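Example 3.2
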Amino acid sequence: MLQYLLIFADVHHEFRIPELQSIAELHGFPLNLPESLEDQDPTRPYMVVSLQQEEHALIFARRCILVKSVYEFYGQGPTYDEVHACTQANETKWARYVPDTSFRFIVTAHKHKIPQSRQRAVVESFAYMGLLGKIDMKHPQILFGCFEEYENRNGVIRSKHEGDEHFRQVYFGRLLEEGSARQLIGKFDVKKRAYYGNTSMEAEISLLMANQTLAAPGKLVYDPFMGTGSMAYTTSHFGALIFGSDIDGRQMRGKGTTPGVIRAARQYGTESRILDLCTFDVTRNPWRCGGLFDAIVTDPPYGVRAGAKRLGRKKELTEEQLKTMLEFRNSPRADDQPYIPPTKPYELSHLAVDLVLLARHLLRPGGRLVFFLPTVTDEYEELDVQSMLCDGMEVIANSLQDFGSWGRRLVTVRKSTDQDYSRPSFEHQESTLEATHIPAHKDFREKYFQGFKREDETPKATSD
């Protein structure tokens, strides 16, 4: 196995490893993470991974949203002496560049400024490599990078070079390729989109979700809460075919003769990959057979900006109201407006369970369900996610986007069985849930607008 140094973007730490594992699975190659759990820490900016060939490392640079650059790994250590010893031991990797290859060195650190004088001293310490090529600061044939990792000192006021040389680890290698996938964040910027709404998902997150679905040409992906289509654009960009539905068709249509989702997809050149958009309640869906989709990706409404709805009435009709409704249904008048069925709130914990059941029915074996689940930070337990599962479905990734008192978790669930399951009824979920475990995301909307105060919290007494 060959070793490569990955430089990560300093965002969404918990999403890094799941994204690497997904892209490796998509392209069918093994990924070996560092053996030490400390070196697997997703909050650290650098990680050395083992791959079978250089092409696999280039795939990470071209597809992973959170990878800034990829380097051929030469050495690492807590001191420069160890880095030099490791680099000399790997001479076969860089010896071919000695005779006549133009080069450049960079010496940098994560969240730390290294003095120019010490940068120069570090570069000169690699003189044993005996590079005979031209030093080219603008267009070198190869670029050597030396990266110093310091402990996280966020929130600490310090002078410009304070703590210099007190690094945790140093890494050294040759640049293979700068990450190009991050440029897609600008391309799919919501503010530049032809059609969007107040619930549209930000570009970076929707791209990460697309990678979790293993989106690629020939894949069929379904979004049951389509809304303004944020996930459709990124998954279709990677070649997947998209089918979308929503209980409120206005969200997908927008204003104008051409649906808003189609207009935005046309902007990205993926209009032909949007197979269709349909309006229906996901609990009363028209699917008559399962095993249709390679992935289901969605951001269910959880009540902060828009609440989830399902068909039904909050209160049952009286006998008189039911009689009147049946009369109009049996003898419609010519000037009657189109019938709009009533809806009722769809409680989030019930929605999550139903979504997993629906995915088990609709996904092909090995297919993935990728969705966001909001959680209350102080109340969350791993059991909250496990309690949503059913036979044949397993969680393979659970990454937190932290907002403080609450956060949302990108949950990836895989269908782990070849067995066919019947179409779920989506009924009688309340008693099952409450009898086993009450998750922190239950009644999330109410908790959000109450400021996530616990029931046992009492207001402090005020003195006169």
